[in-house]
Amino acid sequence: MKSLPTAMLNRLSVLWTVTALVISMLPQLASMPFHLVPITLLPIVWRLMAEFRQWKPIPMILRVLATALAVGALVTTYGGLMGRRAAVSMLVLMLSLKLLETFRIRDARIVVSLSLFLCATQFLFSQGIPMIIYIIACLLSSLISFMYLQRCEAFSVLDEEPESDRKLLTELGFGASLMALALPIGITLFLLFPRWGSPLWGLPEDALDARSGLSDSMTPGSIQNLFMDDSPAFRAKFEGGVPRNSDLYWRGPVFWNFDGSTWEVSYLSRNLLADNKPDPEKAPFRYDVQMEPTEQRWLFALDYPALTPRRTKMTVDYQLIASRPVTRLLSYTMASDPGFQDSPVLRQTLLRAALALPEGFNPRTAAMMADWRKEAGSDSEIIRRALQHFNQQQFHYTLNPPLLSQHTVDEFLFDTKEGFCEHYASAFTVMMRMAGIPARVVTGYQGGFYNPIGSYLLVRQSDAHAWSEVWVRGSGWTRIDPTAAVAPERVQQGAVDSLEQRRYLLDFEWLRNARNTFDLFQRGWNNWVITFGADRQSRLFSIFGWEYLGPAKLVIAMIAILLITGAVIFLVAPMLLKFRSSRKPDPLLRLWGKFIKKLEKAGFVSHPSMGAMELAANAGGQLKYESDAIFRIAELYTLCRYSRDMGNEAELTELINCFEIRSAPGS
Amino acid sequence: MVTVATPPAPRSFVSSISDRIKQRVHKKRGPMTPPFELAYRQIFVLPTKFGWGFGFMLIFMALGGLNFNNNMALILVFLLATIAQLTTLIAYRNLSGLKVDSIHAEPVFCGEYAHFRVFASNGNERQRFAIQAGFRQAQDCKNFKLNSYDSFLLQRPTYKRGWLEMPSFRLETRFPLGLFKAWSWIFPQTRCLVYPAPARKAPPLPKTGHGHSGPARRGDGDEVHGLRKYQPGDSRQRVAWRASARHDELYSMEMETPREDACELDWDLLRGSEVEKRLSILTAWVIAADHKQLSYSLILPDSAIPVGKGDSHRSRCLEALALYLL
Question: What is the nearest CA distance from B138 to chain A, expressed in angstroms?
Fold first, then answer.
């Protein structure tokens, strides 16, 4: 049967269509360039005004013009339509412009369906816990608008929809119960639907939102900025106990090249692979890391990593570098051996790189180191002296160091004497190189917050740290943390606690603790929702003893479980979806029905048009031996029905329950 | 009344499926006599056009979600797919158990729309929403509260006199989201009597009675015939109070209808015209005579209806005209 999807919208459907669209737009509106927001909202406002003021649709030419203008604004803002943000902004803008011509049910359905699509695209940018609220709001509003649209379509054959007792609350409840019923099957599908091990087509790597984290260069101040950022960098769950804080040096980018102000990774160290790795069997620390996306290629591990996760290489300076930037939550298993001896023998090329310094920088430091070299007997003596220098002179570990100009190390060592970990690491490494000791800067994270409930270690961006490594003949690269010489509590207690001042206004300890507790949920969410993929799926089945299920078996299991959940839902659904009945079933009618059933069993054919007495007359004629009882019951029923005081319901119940049709004597 | 012939609608793939279903159902079930309930085997569920489109969008979203391993997008897709699937159940339940009590059609003149009224009632199991009825196109839509009844009005243009069999029609619902439609075919046995269309320029009524006028009818009418003794049941207005006061006894007036010229509507008066034309002139005469409250008789070659008047007489005459030679 044909329906009328071209019928005009009524007011409620318009309002709900707009609501569903606006709700699904909200996250994108918040992250759009500011001047695009009014452009996006304008058509929506126009559509609402058109509804209340009965405006006519605007002509086609104007609509095309508006679209062209909007696309122009978008292209000039993003410099093209490539990239996820630009593409999704385009979708949002087009959907909003679509409202200009949304006067019929079909168009409204397209708008609402595409706003669900828009909702899905938002998860490319964030899959955090708050998005649960977003997904619920989107689902609920679009379900409700679908319901209104459906009824608008159905009743378009009449002049107006009849009053029904479906109020907004009914619709909300109905939508919510639909969602509640869908949840078990949805979860089953989610857990069992076969996943692809590798994507068919890749994500565009450009145009991701900039994320904070360690980068591939270090200038004074770069880590200091991270220090304000409490967002998680990664989480690690250890098999066995968590190592001591002083062992928690998470190795990230290693810098060899210094140009006087900036440290950079060296081409050599990035491309040479480690030829000697710690033995994973003997590594004392084993842990699983769940790493937040960084848009960079470094993976973090404790010194010294023994395993190389998939699609990752281990370089000669023990950085773990992935083949692609980490654009989504990444899980890997790692083992580390802190006692590993790193390069007892150093190649010539690396040795040269570890001693290189730019010409004409930091003359005062150079002079001091030349003196020390003369006075010292060995490399280790110079190292010790440098650390003592940091410890005994009035050096301060501070978040707001003064700005440095050209000779950064000179100014830091002799004038300002205030700095953050990167200043100390940088200065120390330059000092070592000037004294002829091979040295390099390592950045990464130090410490972490141990969450006792989830028993895992949470490492935040604010735990970012920089330290030095020096190469000592015979024992290889050795970690030296000059910050520890100045502020030992940085290493013992963690970055935030080692500062005396608050970082910002709302930086209270209880707030930090609350956030740490909340992180537990975030970790579970990450584990079970965001990183759930082919491998975790197979791990889930290994609980039941099935090691690996191919897609075929997975589909069979899925269908089986779906059938079971489906059956359960089929039983539960009527209870949940029952619209509140305004009248209880009439007990008298039920009793009467029972009586009729008994008569019908004896071969009597009743007809719904028969009244009680007529039925009794017919039945009495047919079942002669029971006619007295039949008449009595019918009379009593009539009394009960029409004069409540005179009829005795209990008696009627008794009579009907005892009523039995005896076979006629002689037959 | 001007009638417009409806051109055959282009058949889509889906509606050809539903046509095939319809034929199979018809073969299996044959005509249905109300009252009956819509039950499990009579209700079919298929996606609507919007449902197909929505499904394709979901597949597209699922591919994207799988490719990027974007699990929240997948959750959204799976939830939507499950909800869509659930609505098949809801649509089915919305229709199942609805009771069709009776189907009626009043006679109409050819060229008017035949109105079929489908009376349906709802028990106390659940409320029903947005149930549509129609032949090809939805023509009526109703909500049903608990323990309520209502009727659907279905229209059909008429093109010729005689019996118009009510075509099969559908009771359908797309509740709640419009993604799926659940429908039930109904093959009614109801027919609508179509009278010939009255001729527009009919000749004046023939005044020539053939002496079929009998004695004046007693008992009812406008003129007083005489008095008789009051009998229980006589109208109070007919009591002759003055006469009764004189005789200490109640008298009531006996009324009569004055003898009129009965007109005779004879087929043979219209010699020279073709059959349908004659029938439509006779129809116009019957209407005119009835309008003027004349007594009339109808004489057709195969039947004759004696003199009479009133609604039932009119119906009898019109029926004879409608079914002449059919």
Answer: 6
